[in-house]
Design a protein that fits this description.
This protein is mainly alpha-helical. It has one domain: Rhopdopsin 7-helix transmembrane proteins (Up-down Bundle). It is built from ten helices and three strands. It has a three-stranded mixed beta sheet. α1 runs parallel beside α9, α3 runs parallel beside α7 and α8 packs antiparallel against α9. It starts with 8 loop residues before the first strand and ends with a helix. GO terms for molecular function: G protein-coupled receptor activity; olfactory receptor activity. It is a multi-pass membrane protein. It is found in: Membrane. One of its GO terms (cellular component) is plasma membrane. This is G-protein coupled receptors family 1 profile domain-containing protein.
Length: 318
């Protein structure tokens, strides 16, 4: 069948058609976006400049913070800008690019969270061999493999979508371009494509989730032989990561691992794992981690002292 495409742009219906509600959402999501960027940058700068936070766990956390910034930046700015306009449009090329980036950064985040679970497993279950198994070279390759796996996944989703014919209508019942809403607009039978999309999403989401669950089950079983102090320390190390995994994987699996149908709740569920969860991540990792909090305090104190010294030097020399 020859592919025909009469659609040069799509109309996004957004989160709501209520103008007053959109104005409130504009302020709210602008605040969310600012918190995400500032919180993640603070994490990245603290880990980068602190000599204490040089373990593989913080190496992965730094990259996770960077991916979260990229992930939210793909959808949040467009969503915020669309709150101020009545007709929300996006070009066909822009739509496909957005779809590709969402799956690239989303997939990278899934793989990084899985890698971090493996890091926790080695740190707790094989502490004597930890620095040998999870060295800098291995960490770097794990990050590269996460990006590569996400790239392949994103290319599959994008190529499956772009080969479909779109001849109208062009209204997407969402606030950004994703595979399932676009499949509804294709003017051909999308059953086979839908099955491949769900299989691809499901294979990645479910397999990574199973690895995460197995890792933490093994960790919890191994903690039975530890002292109460060692058990509490290990649980504190894992608690933040488990919280983030639940907050991200729960909504993500709800969206990805089902047939190509859309529900009214999809928009809010997607908002949760693309914007709300990245916003909460810095708070989760910071508030539950004494090392990060102490490093931030030291970094802030050092910056204040440096600024005070620079300010006092000219007055002393004069």
């Amino acid at each position: 069948m020859e592919k025909t495409n009469n659609v040069s742009k799509f109309i996004l219906l957004g989160l709501s058609l209520d103008q007053e509600l959109q104005q409130v959402c504009f302020v709210l999501f602008l605040l969310f976006c600012a918190v995400i960027i500032l919180g993640k940058l603070l994490n990245i700068i603290t880990i980068k400049r602190s000599e204490r936070l040089n373990s593989p766990m913080y190496f992965f956390l730094r990259y996770l913070s960077f991916v979260d910034i990229c992930y939210s930046s793909v959808t949040a700015p467009k969503l915020i800008a669309d709150f101020l306009v009545e007709r929300k449009t996006i070009s066909f090329v822009g739509c496909i690019a957005q779809l590709f980036m969402v799956h690239l950064f989303g997939g990278t985040k899934i793989f990084l969270l899985t890698v971090m679970a493996y890091d926790h497993y080695i740190a707790i279950c094989k502490p004597l061999h930890y620095m040998t198994i999870v060295n800098k070279h291995v960490c770097s390759w794990m990050v590269v493999a996460s990006w590569a796996g996400a790239f392949v996944h994103s290319m599959v989703q994008t190529l499956l979508t772009t080969q479909l014919p779109f001849c109208g209508p062009n209204e997407i019942d969402h606030y950004f371009c994703d595979v399932h809403p676009l499949l509804k607009l294709a003017c051909t039978d999308t059953y086979i494509v839908s099955v491949i999309v769900v299989a691809n999403n499901g294979m990645i989401s479910l397999s990574c989730f199973v690895v995460l669950v197995v890792s933490y089950v093994v960790i919890l079983v191994s903690l039975k032989t530890r002292s109460s102090k060692g058990r509490l320390k290990a649980l504190s190390t894992c608690a933040s990561h488990i919280t983030v995994v639940i907050l991200f994987f729960g909504p993500c699996i709800f969206i990805c691992m089902r047939p190509s149908t859309t529900f009214s709740e999809d928009k809010m569920v997607t908002v949760f794992y693309t914007i709300i969860t990245p916003m909460l991540n810095p708070l989760i990792y910071t508030l539950r981690n004494e090392e990060v909090k102490n490093a931030m305090k030291q970094l802030w104190s050092r910056e204040v002292i440096s600024s005070s010294t620079i300010t006092l030097l000219p007055s002393m020399t004069s």
